[in-house]
């Protein structure tokens, strides 16, 4: 998945996450950032991966929680 395929808001969210984590460790921030990009690519390969969240949205979005970093979910 190309970084260019993400919306500007998604890129800004990822940068905010990276910045927050980088205060403590840029190395860990880089790993989390890469995991997010990998998760986005994983879902993009097969858009039916993940699960719906009807309590969050009625849109046909799929959510994928990052295995290594379960505090982060891509939609």
Proportion of strand residues: 5-15%
Q: How many domain modules? A: 1
The gross shape turns out to be elongated
**Are there runs of 5+ residues with pLDDT below 50, and where?**
none
- Total strands: the figure is 2
- Topology order in helix (H) and strand (E) letters: HHEE
- The percent range for helix content is 40-55%
Mean pLDDT: 91
By secondary-structure content and strand pairing, the structural class works out as mainly alpha
Strand order in space, largest sheet: 1-2
What composes the largest sheet?
2 strands, antiparallel
As a whole number of angstroms, the C-alpha radius of gyration is 13 Å
The gist of it:
Helix content is 47%, strand content 5%. The protein is built from two helices and two strands. The longest helix has 20 residues, at 26-45.
List keywords for this structure.
single chain; mainly alpha; two-stranded antiparallel ribbon; 2 helices
Structural account:
The chain is mainly alpha-helical. 47% of the residues lie in helices and 5% in strands. It is built from two helices and two strands. Strands 1-2 form a two-stranded antiparallel ribbon. The longest helix has 20 residues. It is elongated. The two termini are 14 Å apart. The model has no long low-confidence stretch (mean pLDDT 91).
